[in-house]
Specification:
Length: about 375
């Protein structure tokens, strides 16, 4: 009986121990899965970005229209055509002005002929007056005849000058008609690409009334020079200076960053919405060849670099809690809190001046349930 009781007690102790171990194991907290990032070294920038999408614009863009009303008689360009300065873009019907021009040309030729005739007569009259004066000196002619010849000479010289002035008047009239004719021909003010044509042959075009904008007849742009215009919040605008470096990103060129520099800061605030007042900032592309393939009108974002730290300790900004605190995963797989000193910061990285060492792991998934000081955690595998 003694041996049986001993075995019974041993079995009972084993059962009680197993149940106790099971209860202890079930009572242990479930580790929370977290994402971590190691403290590393790299560059950190202090930047400001646009509040709404910016736009790619051409350095030179002109909406040109004829300065007079008329019927379109010729339209030698279409959208997408490349033109040179002075090329004809649109011609209005001007046969009436051409007739006036031909008439003015004829009148100018006639005026020149009349001037030549008058001046020849003035030369003949002058020689006659000189001859009569010599005869008087030789006592072979009368003083009265000589005076009459002098008067005739002066009269003919005045007629010559009047005819020459009439020639200048005719030439000025010809210039007036030529200027009127030039108003019926719309030419390119610079080299560029025709972006839009508003009108067809046979239609009537009229200049825009004062204060009432209308679409231009030809929209011409120079796409060899592009820049970005984007709104910056009024709070950030005072920190921006001309020539500051900037990063440019476009939806049309995903994953590519273009270097740029600030070319202009608007001297006024734009009030698109009362609670969202902005300042327009323009940024040039530092490498003009980067603009190849870009089109004005593309949406773009700018990130202006106010300051930069090179090769400093940094952590993802999403790991920073209020009060410059971070959560670390220690060697015992427990989460502990630490207060750190931060330097420059942006949406991606924050500089760590003190409080962390390279290689330490900080938690970036700080918003997950169960992520708190003292919790047991496991590192979630990357996808």
């Amino acid at each position: 009986m003694t041996a049986k009781r001993s075995r019974f007690f041993v079995l009972l102790l084993l059962i009680v121990g197993g149940v106790g171990a099971l209860v202890w194991w079930l009572g242990q907290p479930t580790p929370v899965a977290v994402k971590v990032a190691e403290v590393n070294r790299g560059n950190v920038q202090d930047t400001v970005a646009n509040t709404r999408a910016g736009t790619i614009k051409a350095c030179r863009r002109a909406g040109v229209s004829p300065s007079v009303s008329g019927q379109i008689d010729g339209l030698p360009v279409t959208e997408g055509d490349v033109v040179k300065r002075g090329d004809l873009l649109m011609a209005l019907w001007n046969e009436d002005i051409q007739a006036q021009y031909q008439l003015a040309q004829s009148e100018a030729v006639a005026a020149e002929s009349r001037a030549a005739q008058a001046c020849v007569r003035a030369e003949v009259a002058q020689r006659e007056a000189e001859r009569q004066r010599k005869l008087v000196q030789q006592r072979l002619g009368s003083e009265e005849t000589a005076d009459r010849a002098d008067g005739e000479s002066r009269a003919q010289q005045a007629a010559c000058k009047a005819a020459q002035a009439s020639t200048q008047v005719s030439q000025s009239q010809l210039d007036v008609v030529r200027a009127a004719m030039s108003k019926t021909r719309l030419t390119a003010p610079f080299d560029g690409v025709v972006a839009e044509v508003n009108g067809e042959v046979g239609e009537i075009v009229t200049p825009s009334p004062v204060g009432i904008p209308t679409p231009p007849a030809i929209d011409l742009m120079d796409i060899t020079c592009l820049y970005v215009s984007a709104p910056i919040d009024e709070v950030d605008a005072p920190r921006i200076r001309l020539q500051m470096p900037a990063n440019i990103s476009l939806d049309a060129f995903q994953g590519k960053i273009f270097p740029g520099s600030v070319r202009r800061i608007a001297p006024y605030v734009t009030e698109v919405e009362k609670q969202a007042r902005t300042v327009d900032v323009e940024v040039d592309f530092d490498c003009p060849e980067d603009c190849l393939g870009m089109l004005p009108g593309y949406s773009a974002d700018i990130e202006i670099i106010l300051d930069e730290r090179i090769d400093v300790a940094r952590i993802p900004t999403e790991a920073v809690l209020e009060g410059s605190r971070v959560l670390l995963l220690n060697a015992d797989s427990l989460l502990e809190e630490r207060t750190v000193e931060l330097g420059l910061s942006n949406w991606a990285w924050s500089e760590v001046s003190a409080g962390l060492q390279p290689g330490e792991q900080v938690v970036v998934s700080v918003e997950r349930d169960g992520v708190e000081v003292g919790a047991t955690a496991t590192v979630e595998a990357d996808d």
